[in-house]
Amino acid sequence: MLIVRCSCGRPEYSVDPVNFRTGASTRCDVCANAAAKGKKYWRYYDAMPDTGHRSRLLNRLAAAITRCHNPNDEGYVNYGGRGIRVCEEWRRDRTAFLRHAATLPGWDDPTLDMDRENTNGHYEPGN
User: Fold this and answer.
1) Does this model's pTM top 0.90?
2) Domain locations along the chain
3) Contact predicate 94/86, CB 8 Å
4) Could you give the residue ranges of the DSSP H alpha helices within 10-93?
5) How far apart (Å, rounded) are the C-alpha atoms in residues 68 and 85?
6) Could you say which of 49, 62, 64, 82 has the lowest number of CB atoms within 10 Å?
7) Is the dihedral of CA 64, 70, 72, 75 positive or negative?
């Protein structure tokens, strides 16, 4: 391990030499986390400019994908285990999901949750 100091002046910390040489470690964890917060789902800005709505909806989509497609998730038995899936288009293209979500009533109300009309159906347009 290498001992380094971030340009922010925080105390020294250790870094894997390979990560240091390749540029994978360029700042301390505090600075890296602060930079990441401002970029949350930034690549989907064109589909939904409001960061709060974009983050909330994409986090809900990610949770649905996990419980439907990851057998290690504790909710899998109630979703993926029953054959419920998130449509391939939304799994492949989250922009398509955001554009669809913005057409639904209440999409901009953070007190509402994402659910399906047919509880035995998939997460897909029309449900």
Assistant:
1) no
2) 2-37, 41-127
3) no
4) 17-22, 29-37, 51-69, 88-92
5) 5
6) 49
7) positive
